[in-house]
Design goal:
There is one protein chain. Strand 3, helix 5 and strand 4 form a beta-alpha-beta unit. Strands 2-1-3-4 form a four-stranded parallel sheet, sandwiched between helices. By secondary structure, the protein is of the alpha/beta class. The termini are far apart. It is about 25% helix and about 10% strand. The longest helix is centred in the last third of the chain and has 12 residues.
Length: about 170
């Protein structure tokens, strides 16, 4: 016995031709992105490379070690070259989030994505001194919440060691 092709055996072209989209995708829409503790722009670059995202601001103090002076890393030059946005050279522990928002020209709730990559070397288990005293840069993680409260983005994306991991049950 032969069987006729089932109705579900249509080609993709047939399905697309007869299936109306609920709402056509508008490629002119762009989502705004800002990056605090932006460094050289590693996380921003993925958003920058995607046509639906527009990086509207970045900020980094460019400090490598606690003993370094403001601007010593020069990572903002790399960010500017790769992303096309001039990062603010500011100490995010001290500057007002409202001031940053105003410089970026944003209203509260207008930002879609807030990126944050706070310094992580103070959390490293490899550095013996981290077991004896707390690195002052570790407190910068808490500043992300302060910036998020002021900016009110739709999404906050944080990168850092141990963030989002459940504790080891054996400890």
């Amino acid at each position: 016995a032969t069987h006729a092709a089932a109705p579900c055996a249509r080609t993709l072209r047939d399905v697309v031709a007869v299936t109306p989209l609920a709402q056509p995708y508008d490629h002119r829409v762009s989502f705004t992105v800002a990056d605090i503790f932006s460094g050289a722009g590693g996380m921003s670059f993925g958003f920058h490379a995607h046509r639906d995202f527009r990086v509207v601001g970045a900020a980094d103090a460019q400090i490598g070690k606690p003993s370094s002076r403001l601007g010593s890393l020069r990572c903002n030059d790399t960010y500017r070259t790769n992303i096309g946005v001039d990062p603010l050279e500011v100490d995010l522990a001290r500057v007002s989030p409202a001031a940053i928002r105003e410089v970026w020209g944003l209203r509260r709730g207008e930002l879609d994505v807030l990126l944050a990559c706070p310094p992580c070397s103070g959390f490293s288990r490899i550095t013996a001194a981290n077991h004896l005293r707390d690195d002052p840069r570790n407190s910068l993680v808490g500043r992300i919440a302060v910036y998020a409260q002021e900016l009110r983005p739709k999404v906050v994306l944080v990168e850092g060691p141990g963030l989002g991991h459940a504790p080891d049950p054996g400890q």
